[in-house]
Amino acid sequence: MTLGCQMNMSDSERVASVLDAAGCEKVDTEEEANFIGILACSVRQKAIDKVYSRISKWNKWKNKKNLVTFISGCMLPDDKEKFLKLFDIVFTMPELPQLPRMLGEYGISNPLSLIAQPQSPVDEIKLFWKVKPKYDSTFEAFVPIQNGCNKFCTYCAVPYTRGREISRPSEEILDEVRILVHKGYKTITLLGQNVNSYGLDKNGEEMSFPELLEKVGQIGEETDHEFWVYFTSPHPRDMTTDIFHIIAKYRCLGKQIHFPLQSGDEKVLIKMNRKHSLAKYRESMVALREILPQATVFTDIIVGFTDETEEQFENTRKVMEEFKYNMAYIAMYSPRPGAASYSWEDSIAMEEKKRRYAVLSEELAKHTYAYNQSLIGKTLKVLVREHDRKDGYLSGHTEGKLVIRFKSSDENLIGQIIEVKVTEAAKFSLEGERIAVKSLQ
């Protein structure tokens, strides 16, 4: 079971690889398993609540059968301490190469598969990155480029769960990208807590994030294979216009930017310790729109942060109206142990947080609907991902990561990039009809 962000999803692919090497076989249901676990996320309380719910159920099963449980992922020290009493095996993601030894203690695998003991946290994460992932998909892949965070936003626990920023060697990243392209993958997402601070921890001994993007773009130019490369998440403080120019230059670099706002009020940004001003964010957004007018823009926003006034909340709504995002992941603030704001009074009532959430959701929907309506009649390239909930339809996403469905039952299209003409638009999705291949000739 994987909880949390795309980084945890990527981590789960490396966990699967280690378990395969240890001789474990995947089963279809939890009830069939003799070894079961969770990649947790201490960043959100709801995710931690799910952990306790699952382990309570699993530990009851131990009365009826042999069962070994494990937990890893993003864990705060306090959470990890509690998990040690509930799970059989508790390990951090950088400790993954040592998992075979831990499994061997329970007779699950051969402890001789143990990788050499690392000497430091940097050594640990380097060994972790060398574990070849078992990709969950045959056409979509995550490639970690960086781990940890040095920003210390007051609401965030990531620096305490992931540690300080460490950049993965660019040679390893580019090799993994080349392999994925050679295998025919259609989307590749470069992952990190702060991807655009990539290389800053290497004191000039490693390329910068723009330089890394340029190299990835060049890989795309070396092949006729069509694919899209994305990245998440960048930080406004480290966002530079050369990133936008590089994305515009290379066809394989997806024209979609995830650009977290968190708040549209200057004082709240300071209290959040975001280390950038609204003016800096706006400057980047103006440049983005000028250099990449076709790009869609997604963002993250927190409502109800400690002592957020109605006026400060309204400033966020106004900024949403100004930037007209294509998607916003809106979260109601909840204090997390380890984060600086945990010791502050959570002064905004839940009912008020819900109201503000609804207001921003309505603001978002107004702009997404207008944008989606403007696409009616246009033909877009679409990566087909799965069967849609509507019978007889498949769904996927555009290069800009907009969800679209079209009438078809041809499963062979899943994992392919095709062309779809938009015929209908809703607030958060599109509908269209497939353009027949013969009509493109």
Order of helices and strands: HEHEHEHHEEHEHEHEHEHHEHEHEEEEE
Evaluate the radius of gyration: 23 Å
Derived from helix and strand composition plus strand pairing, the structural class reads alpha/beta
Going across the major beta sheet, what is the strand order?
A: 12-13-14-16-15
Can you describe what's shown?
The protein is an alpha/beta fold and 441 residues long. Among the domains are: 6-122, no CATH class; 137-254, Transcription Regulator spoIIAA (2-Layer Sandwich), CATH 3.30.750; 379-440, Beta Barrel (OB fold (Dihydrolipoamide Acetyltransferase, E2P)), CATH 2.40.50.140. Helix content is 35%, strand content 20%. It has 13 helices and 16 strands. It has helices at 6-21, 45-61, 77-83, 99-104, 121-129, 158-161, 170-182, 209-221, 241-249, 266-271, 278-291, 310-323, 350-374; strands spanning 35-41, 68-74, 89-90, 140-144, 146-147, 166-167, 187-191, 228-232, 256-258, 296-303, 327-332, 379-387, 393-398, 403-407, 417-425, 430-434. Strands 12-13-14-16-15 form a five-stranded mixed β-barrel. A three-stranded parallel sheet has the order 1-2-3, with helices on both faces. The protein has a three-stranded parallel sheet with strand order 4-7-8, sandwiched between helices. Helix 8 (209-221) links the parallel strand 7 and strand 8 (228-232). Helix 12 (310-323) runs parallel beside helix 13. Residues 111-116 have low confidence and may be disordered.
